[in-house]
Each structure stands twice: as structure tokens, then as C-alpha cells.
Amino acid sequence: MKVRCELDVQVVMGSVSHNNTGLQGYLPDGTSYKDVVRVFGEPQWCGRTPDEKIKVEWNGRINGITFTIYDYKSKVDPKDNTDWHIGGKLKFTAELVNLYFKKMKEINTNAVRG
Known about the structure:
Helix content is about 25%, strand content about 25%.
């Protein structure tokens, strides 16, 4: 059975504590750094974590639910990465982030085509 529904989504980036969040899912395979920036803006954090497992991270809230997007243990420069992790406190977080990401990417692509 398929169910179709509409969902109003509000995304607010930055100023979010990501304490006690963990891996909940992934952005679609092959997602580029540019695609993430087009949808979520510039990353809120760049550098290296003390354990050197993360070089870049976006964090925000989607409908009040905390999420992060990050390049966990990537061996490539963030701008060449295509493997993005989604962190949060609930599995639903990754589903919601992916729905938003795919729709915004589609809107941005159609706007460029004009």
C-alpha cells in the first residue's frame, strides 16, 4: 500500500547542540558537497575533531528535531566527498532530512533549468 501525504517543513540551521546524537542514516549515494551546500548552506563547522573523524559538519533543526550532516572517517577532502552521514536522536530524523534534501535539490535543479 502506498500512502501520500504533505508535510510542512521548517529548517533552521546552526546554533544547535548535537550532544547525544548519533548516526541515523545517510544522504543519497553520490551526494556532492555542492549539493549539501545548495540545500543547507555553508557548514556550521569546518576543521578536524580531536579524534580526526570529522572534517566538516552542518547542524540544525528540522521541525524542531536536531540533526547533523557530517563526513565521518572520510579519507577525501570534504569538497570531494560523496558519503554523508545524518546524525540525530531518532531514526525518523534521517527520513525527514532526506525528504527535505531531495525536494529542495529537485526545486534547485528545476530553477537552474529555468
